[in-house]
Amino acid sequence: MRLEGGSALSLRRWWRSAGFARAGIAHAYRTQPNFRIEVWAGTLACAVALALRAPLAPVALACALVLGLELVNTALEAVVDLASPELHPLAKVAKDAAAGAVLVASGGAVVVALAVLLPPLLRVLGF
What we know:
Layout: H1 11-31, H2 33-51, H3 56-83, H4 89-124
C-alpha cells in the first residue's frame, strides 16, 4: 500500500475519507435524536451481552445495521430536502421508505436481542 499520492490504496486518502465518515457520524449524533437513542441502546445491548457472556457478534451486527441505516436515512433526508425544498409526494415516499428501513432493522435487532440475551438473562434471574 502506498502511503502518499492519489492512489486508491493511499493511506493518506483513506485517512481523509475516514475523517469525512467521522464527520457524518458526528453530525448525525448532534442533530438526530433517534440516532443518539440508537447509539445508547446499542451500547447497552452490547454491554449486557458482555456481562451475560452471551454471543456478542449477532448483537453488535444488529446494532451496526440499525445505526448504518439511520445514517443512510439521515443522508437521504438531506438530499431530498436539497433537491425538493417544497413538499412533494415522491419526496415523502423516499423519506418514509428510508425511515421504514430503519424501523424494520430495529425490529430485527429486538428479535436478535430477545433470542440472544433473554435465555442467559433468565438463567441469571433463576428462571
